[in-house]
Amino acid sequence: xxxILIIEDDREMEEMIREYLERFGYSAEGTxxxxxxxxxxxxxxxxxxxxxxxxxxxxxxxxxxRLSKEIPVIISTARGDIGNKIIGFELGAWDYLAKPYEPRxxxxxxxxxxxxxxxxxxxxxxFTIDQExxxxxxxxxxxxxxxxxxxxxxxxxxxxxxxxxxxxxxxxTSLPPDTRNRTVDMHISxxxxxxxxxxxxxxxxxxxxxIGYKFISPPPDQ
Length: 222
Prior knowledge:
The chain is α/β, with parallel strands linked by helices. Helices cover 41% and strands 22% of the residues. It is built from eight helices and twelve strands. The protein has helices spanning 11-23, 34-43, 60-66, 82-90, 103-120, 147-158, 166-171, 181-195; strands at 3-7, 27-31, 48-51, 73-77, 95-98, 121-124, 127-130, 135-138, 141-143, 164-165, 205-208, 212-215. The protein has a five-stranded parallel beta sheet with strand order 2-1-3-4-5, with helices on both faces. Helix 1 links the parallel strand 1 and strand 2. Helix 1 crosses helix 5 (103-120). The longest helix is centred in the middle third of the chain and has 18 residues, at 103-120. The radius of gyration is 21 Å and the shape is elongated. The two termini are 30 Å apart. The mean pLDDT is 89.
């Protein structure tokens, strides 16, 4: 069940949105306090945020600037002018709905975003792989992979539990066909360093003697 956070200072509006979302099978909770919302986002996992712009303590745009996790945001606001829409999209909002609107329209947009996000992202344990933007994050925090590291990590994660040879890793990515095994090992070493994985006691990528590497899922008890 997808979890949605509603940040809205109009209590009646918040209750209406929440009840409507729950009617369509979503788990929703709301708050009027954007500072509290930032704490909730850090402590829990949400699939989408519905955000009003006119809020106490912190404007909705400032909330977007401080949002550290990569979560889709639909702006729900009475500010319907094009200037605010442009700012909202520039700050990373996925959609923008000007009040008043029919609750069913909001639900349709929520459904569309979650379908789109499901196609574009892969969740593997703590990792979120964003295929469209070629980015990987762990618990919402981005990992600075090179393009080659992204391809290798994604290939291993998509085949979790299955050993892949160095030759498979070379021929299934954009690495040149004459790439040496030592070069693959160097890339894997860099990936491990960036995700905090100890090759002697791996949580994510395990060396398979005589073959290559495999992504461990679920991670073993440490």
